[in-house]
Design a protein that fits this description.
With 237 residues, this protein is mainly beta. The protein has one helix and 17 strands. The chain has one helix spanning 151-165; strands spanning 3-4, 9-11, 27-29, 35-37, 44-46, 57-63, 77-83, 89-95, 109-114, 120-126, 131-139, 145-150, 175-178, 185-186, 191-199, 206-217, 223-232. The two termini are 23 Å apart.
Length: 237
């Protein structure tokens, strides 16, 4: 049975300051079976497989210096949480990901895991050997931004501490890798179930954990979360 952890609440500041409630324009189909929000430089392209179950929200990427139909001119791309109907940006974070529909950056992925009611979403930025960012976003009843939380920091801190308890040598040198897809789930109640691998890329060894967190809204706005349990898991195949 998983060992229960202290119910210490961990809060995270909103990313990149206050969210920008700007409208780029409706997200409309392009010639590559994708969706583009707005037009020209600063327009955004919805990332494949990130639409919410309601189809009202999605993750998208954009470059302020180029349209999303072209490779970015520099590395300053943004990850956006958008409302599909009007292209309003609910919040944004830095990313290195881009995909024009014809070309895409190699070995980088932006992935989304949604709650069934489309009110909560976990964004995971997957790099070649680790998960660079993992953030929880909340959406309010009327489609407004309702808070963000740095899940990677919470999970990494707790699991790295567990490695040290097990006297794993050089625990700080291990990379953090969060599974996405079916192994990463979030319920309407904010309960998160995650599979995490801590490993030394290419060389090994690796240590796998099943983690459970409870996220919730703060009374004054924003999000908090507590670790519920961490348990060793089988090696990934």
């Amino acid at each position: 049975m998983p060992r229960m952890l202290p119910t210490i609440c961990i809060a995270s500041a909103l990313l990149l300051g206050a969210p920008a409630f700007a409208g780029m324009g409706p997200c409309l189909p392009d010639q590559h079976d994708g969706l583009i929000c707005g037009s020209g430089d600063g327009a955004a392209r919805v990332i494949e497989d990130t639409l919410s179950p309601s189809k009202r929200f999605a993750l998208a990427w954009r470059s302020l210096d180029a349209p999303p139909t072209q490779e970015p001119k520099d590395d300053k791309t943004e990850l956006l949480l958008v409302r599909v109907g009007d292209g309003v940006i609910l919040t944004r974070s830095p990313t290195e990901y881009w995909d024009t529909g014809e070309m895409h950056v190699n070995r980088l992925q932006e992935q989304a895991s949604w709650s069934p009611n489309s009110r909560l979403v976990i964004r995971a930025f997957q790099q070649r050997f680790e998960t660079g960012s993992a953030e929880l976003y909340a959406i309010g009843k009327t489609g407004e931004f309702a808070g963000a939380l740095d899940l990677r920091k919470i999970l990494d801190t707790a699991i790295r501490a567990r490695l040290k308890q097990r006297r794993v040598r050089d625990a700080e040198s291990y990379s953090f890798s969060l599974s996405s897809g079916p192994e990463l789930k979030i319920g309407n109640d904010g309960l998160i179930r995650a599979s995490v691998m801590m490993w030394i890329p290419k060389e090994g060894p690796e240590h796998n954990y099943a983690a459970t967190l409870q996220a919730m809204q703060k009374p004054g706005g924003g999000l908090i979360a507590r670790m519920v349990s961490i348990a060793p898991a089988r090696e990934r195949r």
